[in-house]
Amino acid sequence: MTTEQLLIALLRAVLSDTPFCEPISFATFKAVYQLAATHDLKHLVYTAAETGGVLPTPSNESEQAFLEKAAASVEMAQYRYAKLEAELDHVGAVFRREGIAYLPLKGAVLRVLYPEPWMRTSCDIDVLVHEEDLDRAVDALVAEGFTTDGVRNYHDLSLYCDGVHVELHHNVLERIPAMDAVLATIWEHTVSKGCYHVEKPAFFLFHHLAHMAYHFLGGGCGVRTVMDLWLLLSYSRCSSDEVLTLCKQGGLSVFAEQLCALAAVWFGDGEHTDMTRKAEQFILNGGAYGSREQGSAATAARYGTTGAIWRKVWMPYADLKQAYPQVADKPYLTPYYQAHRVITRLKQGRGAKAIERLRAVSTQSDEAVAETRELLSQLGLYEVSE
To answer: Measured between alpha carbons, how far is 259 from 192 in angstroms, rounded to an integer?
Structure first.
C-alpha cells in the first residue's frame, strides 16, 4: 500500500468508525503523517492508528518524541475547535443583539457531520452578512474587542479576536462568472432562525462544490474538502435533481460528477477511472489549499503565461472595485488605486512573496501548462473559468 493509499485508508476508518487494523511500521507512519500534515489532517491519521491499535512502537528517543508530537496534534485540533466555536458564539451573540442577519459558512457548519466535531479543522471562521450590513457588522465587532486592518477584499474583510481569525463575508462570489451567477442568490436559498441563517441542503452542496472548484483552479482543493463532500452526499437531505440543476446553471456538472465519483472511490465502494485518478493526484499533490506550482500552472493554462503575469500585477477591475469601492463610481481612479495596492503590499513586506508568485508563473514549463489545461478541460473547469 502506498503512502497515499494508506492516508485514504486511515481517513476512511475515521469516517466509517471501522478500525484500521493493519500493522504500520514507524517509517511508514511517519511518511503518511507528514503527507496528512500538508492537508491539515495529521490529527486524523494519529486518531485512526491509535483507535486501531496499530501505532508503531518507538525504538529510540527520536521516534518517541515524534509520536508524542503526533499525539499532541489531536489535542491541538480539539483546542482549535473549542476556540473557533467560542468565537463563533461570540460573533453570533453580537449580531443577534444588533439585529444583523448572518450566515455561518464552510467548516463552521460541516463539522457537525464528522464523528466528532473537532475532527473537522478550520483555520478561521467564515460568516456572511448582507453587503449593506458590512460596515455596521464590523463596527459592532470592533466595539466588542475585535481588530481589523479594514482592507476589504473581493468577498470578505478580516477581523481578529483572541488569536482567532474571522473572515466576514459580504458575498460568496469566487470570481468565476458562471458560478457567481448562482452563488449571488445565496440569501434566496437560506432558512432563517431569527438573525441566524442556514443554507438549504441542495444549495449548501452546490456551494461546497463551487468552492472546491475555485481552489482546484488555484492549484488544488485538498483531501479535506473531498471528505466534506462525501459526508454531505451521505447525510444531506436534498433532491439530487435540485443539486444537478444548480450545478448545470453554475457550469459545474462535469466537475461535480467527477469529484463525487472520487469521493465514492476514497470513502465508499466506487471504482477508479482515468479521470478520478488524475483528479486524485492533483489533489494529493496540492496540499490543503493548492500548491504554488500547480496554481501557477493552472493560471497560465487559463490566461497564458503573459496574461497570468499581468493579472498578478494589474488586479482585474471587478476585484479592484471590491477592494476599493470608490473605484466603482469613479473608474478613472483605477490607475491610482492599482498603484496604491502595490505600494501597500510593499509596505506590508509582501513584495518578496509577490515576486515569488510571478517567478512561479513565468517558469512553468509548456508541458506542465498543457497537462493542467487538459485536466481542467476534462473536468469542465477550463471553459467555465473563462
So the answer is: 30
Number of Cβ within a 10 Å radius of residue 320: 20
CA–CA separation, 35 vs 287, rounded Å?
A: 8
Q: State the Cα–Cα distance between residues 14 and 20, nearest whole angstrom.
A: 9
First-to-last CA distance in the chain?
A: 39
Structure confidence by residue, pLDDT tens digits, 5-54? 999 999 999 999 889 999 999 999 999 999 999 999 999 999 999 999 99
d(CA 361, CA 127): 32
Rounded CA gap, 209 and 178, in Å?
13
Q: What is the 3-state secondary structure (H, E, C) of 197-260?
A: EEECHHHHHHHHHHHHHHHHHCCCCHHHHHHHHHHHHHHCCCCHHHHHHHHHHCCCHHHHHHHH
Rounded distance, CA 43 to CA 384, Å?
A: 36
For the record, the C-alpha cell of 211 comes out as 468552492
d(CA 139, CA 234): 40
Contacts 24+ apart (CB under 8 A), 363-370: 364/293, 364/296, 364/297, 364/300, 364/305, 368/293, 368/297, 369/297, 369/300, 369/301, 369/305, 370/301
Query: pLDDT tens for residues 201-246?
Result: 999 999 999 999 999 998 999 999 999 999 999 998 887 889 999 9
List residues bridging with 102 in a β-sheet: 129, 196
Q: Residue 379: which of 279, 292, 289 has the closest Cα?
A: 279
What pLDDT, in 10s, does the model give residues 295-344?
A: 878 777 777 666 556 566 666 776 777 667 777 777 877 787 778 777 77
One-letter-per-residue 3-state SS of 95-138: HHHHCCCEEECCHHHHHHHCCCHHHCCCCCEEEEECHHHHHHHH
Backbone angles phi, psi at 41, to 5 degrees: -130, 15
Q: Is 252 exposed, middle or buried (0-12, 13-18, 19+ CB in 10 A)?
A: buried
